[in-house]
Amino acid sequence: FGIQCYGFLYDQNSHYCIPTGGISAFTPRPNETEGDFYFLGGCKAYVDFKPYNYIRYADITFQQDYFTARRTCECLDARLMAADTVDKWVWFLGFTGNSYTYWLGLDDLKEENNFVWADGQTIKPEIKEQIFTKGKPDGDGDCVFRVTFTSFMDDADCNRNLTSICEQLQFATSVCN
């Protein structure tokens, strides 16, 4: 094929396979009517990861609820971003600009008011104080997002449709060059 083939769509009705060049944050993922998508190239199938400090980040620009965003990241051998240090938060603000709201890998789904990052760490009080909007989180939601045009986070209903950021350790189990 004339493109690098990172995956294919399989149509169960026609039994045809259609090669693809990978998936991108700038286009929605294939839907059921197009067929089932299969990765061939592991982490290379997703072409939009950018490296920073031993972690690779992908800006998922189509909107989805928190649970779908989390599954999208997991499908890419990644997780929703854990901005668990001030340095990482400042880098994130520069990486994303300020025109979108983003789901972050932080929620209190297991225990109310106990916010845990996607990497399993509980949010540190000093981080919580610095990067949440004043008086937040206030319990009006279980999932955390970055507030548009600010440098702060807030909690919201997990069913809201927002963009998201996935992070993948460069030394993940997949072979990534």
TrEMBL record:
Annotated PROSITE patterns: C_TYPE_LECTIN_2
CDD domains (alphabetical): CLECT (cd00037)
Pfam families, A to Z: Lectin_C
InterPro entries the UniProt entry points to: C-type_lectin-like, C-type_lectin-like/link_sf, CTDL_fold
SMART domains named in the record: CLECT
Residue ranges occupied by any C-type lectin domain in the UniProt entry: 49-167
Name by which UniProt lists this protein: C-type lectin domain-containing protein
Organism from which the protein derives: Biomphalaria glabrata (Bloodfluke planorb)
